[in-house]
């Protein structure tokens, strides 16, 4: 195997890890936000129905456990990516692209109002990642 082929393979693996990290983190964030909306205010729930009710709501939330699973998947994808790539690429790329993915997910899955400032911020963040990777 040539050095060029190995470098291209490592770059491909790095971007696959970044993609997995970003999609899993965005899915985890959406699922945890959805679960917390469904569960409601924990303080109020405890005050009105007691601690047992709070624990029942939390432990019976499939969305919460799915969100935790996806956040764990994102964490381990990031660790694998760090074994192939520099932190100076993995850190900003995964964090920045997760920011942009969360904006899209909030708009289309959670039906949140994402204003123009956040869309503009997502564009700037992605542009920064593009500049970082093109050097």
Fraction of residues in β-strands: under 5%
User: What string, H for helix and E for strand, traces the elements in order?
Assistant: HHHHHH
Report the strand count.
0
| Largest sheet report | none
What is the residue-averaged pLDDT? 88
Unreliable residue runs: none
How many angstroms separate the termini?
25 Å
Which structural class fits the helix and strand makeup? mainly alpha
User: Portion of residues in helices?
Assistant: over 70%
What's the Cα radius of gyration? 19 Å
Distinct helical segment count? 6
- General shape: elongated
Plain-language structure description:
With 135 residues, the chain is an all-alpha fold. Helix content is 87%, strand content 0%. The chain contains six helices and no strands. Helix 1 packs antiparallel against helix 4 (62-84) and helix 5 packs antiparallel against helix 6 (116-133). The longest helix has 37 residues, at 3-39.
